[in-house]
Amino acid sequence: MKNKQSLLFTGPKWIRWTVFISFLLFVSCSIYLIFLYNDLLDSKTAGYEETKQQLLKAESLTEIDKVETFYGKEAYHVVYGKDEDGQNKLIFYPLKGKEKKLITVDQSEILSKSEIKNTWKQECDQCELVRITPALVDGNELWELTYVDSSKRYVFDYLDMYDGSRYEQLRFKSMFK
C-alpha cells in the first residue's frame, strides 16, 4: 500500500494559501473581538475608582460595597457603602460638573430591593424581571424596575424608594419579531 499524503501538502498551491489565509483571518478576528470585549467592559465601569476615591477622601463613606451607574437626564454613579457610624448609605454621585452635589439616602429608611421585587412579583406574576437599580429622576429617589411584561413589552417602572408608590411607567412595544 502506498502512503497517502494529505491533499493540503501535495495539492495545488492555491489550496495551501487559502487554508493559511483563512486561518490567519480567523486568528486575527478572534484577537480583535477579545480586545473589543475588554474595551467595552472597561468603559462600562469607567470612573468607578475615581468616584470611590473622592467619596472616601471626602469622608462621606468609610467603606464602599458596590458602584452602579444610572443614566437619566443626568448620569450618576450610585454608590452603596457605610458611613463612620456603620449606617448603610446610598449616594448618588453626579458625573457632570466640577462641583458635585451629592444626594445621600439612608438605606434603613427606604424599601429594600427585595421588598420592591416581592411587591412587584405579586402585581405582575407573568413578567420577567431584567433588573432593579436605584434611580434619580427630577430630584426624586426611585427604584427603576426593568422587565418584560406578559404582553412582551419592555417596561421601565419607577417606584418611590420610601413608600413604593409609582412615579412613572414607560412601556415599549417591539416593532420587529
TrEMBL record:
Keywords: Membrane, Transmembrane, Transmembrane helix. Residues 50-94 form the Cell wall elongation regulator TseB-like domain. The keyword Methyltransferase does not apply. The keyword Transmembrane applies. InterPro entries: Cystatin_sf, TseB-like_dom. SUPFAM superfamilies: Cystatin/monellin. The chain crosses the membrane at residues 14-35. Signal peptide: none annotated. It comes from the Bacteria. This is Cell wall elongation regulator TseB-like domain-containing protein. It comes from Virgibacillus pantothenticus.
